[in-house]
Amino acid sequence: SSYHKVLEENRLLYNQVQDLKGAIRVYCRVRPFLPGQQSNGQSTVDYIGEDGNIMIVNPLKQGKDARKVFSFNKVFTTNATQEQIYVDTQPLVRSVLDGYNACIFAYGQTGSGKTYTMSGPDLMTEETWGVNYRALRDLFHISKERADAIKYEVSVQMIEIYNEQLNGLNVPDACLVPVSCTQDVLDLMKIGQKNRAVGATALNERSSRSHSVLTIHVRGRDLVSNSVLKGCLHLVDLAGSERVEKSEAVGERLKEAQHINKSLSALGDVISALAQKSQHIPYRNSKLTQVLQDSLGGHAKTLMFVHINPELNAFGETISTLKFAERVASIELGAAKSNK
Ligand code: ADP
């Protein structure tokens, strides 16, 4: 019966989830050179191994001093498809339907491909959809498959955190909106974009300096036992991680940069405190970590896509991005890797 099918599926899923439990997974994605850049297509990425290693070369140095290796759960090459990026994330997304909480982050400097990974370049083309829409499509699909056994309700919430202030995008007070298919969510996105009171260029500029969080809440009632489970998935497109030259930043720009630095380092602190199983987890140090508190730590699972821009002039940012990512991954990486 379909109920037994659900149980069996849950058991398989549970095993996969056990593999992920407590582990912070870090995946690295290298953006391809964009059409206009191909003429000088020399890359800081020297080598990408199937073992999750990436070797970066410093264009200003020679010999073995010029090379540095960073190690993650996985490194995706420039030709990885949106589908391939999503596949490993699927069990984590699906676990939300069993009552787990999860967070998926996109980290990297502006222009490294964070929005490409999370949203995709074109909402009208399903093949190019990013993690957000693939996750929603999956959640709706599975909840329909399980409809005989469990009645699910899905709702979404879209917020932006800009200068430590929280703004709801789809509705003024950032409340939950019930949705029943991916199209509902696409429609909401359009409203959200209209609600941002800025033009297209300004929107791009600003979105690179704000964290955008799409939260999917799932509530499922078991039709046999009547028990209720709740899960939630946060999909977070982080503000650009680039350091701002002190001399360049004044006024509004300086304030933005300080808020971004503060919240990204607060996120790093929380994740590494969790990994070290510290007594005190410093959630309260930023709006971002406060918003995500219930989905970071405990039984919640965290995954971070770290984005690399392979251009030579991005070398400095690439190294600082990879160092941040290594710090986030460090403690649990050994355990996570031995699961492979
Ligand atoms: P970010 O969100 O980090 O600022 P974007 O996602 O906007 O960066 O990417 C910057 C540019 O690079 C965009 O034009 C985007 O379409 C392109 N791009 C990013 N990642 C890829 C990729 N994997 N394949 C092809 N183009 C990409």
TrEMBL record:
Protein name: Kinesin-like protein KIN-14F
Binding-site list for ATP: 108-115
Superkingdom of the organism of origin: Eukaryota
Residues of the full protein shown: 422 to 761 of 1106
Species whose genome carries this gene: Vicia faba (Broad bean)
Family: Belongs to the TRAFAC class myosin-kinesin ATPase superfamily. Kinesin family. KIN-14 subfamily.
Domain called Kinesin motor: residue spans: 23-331
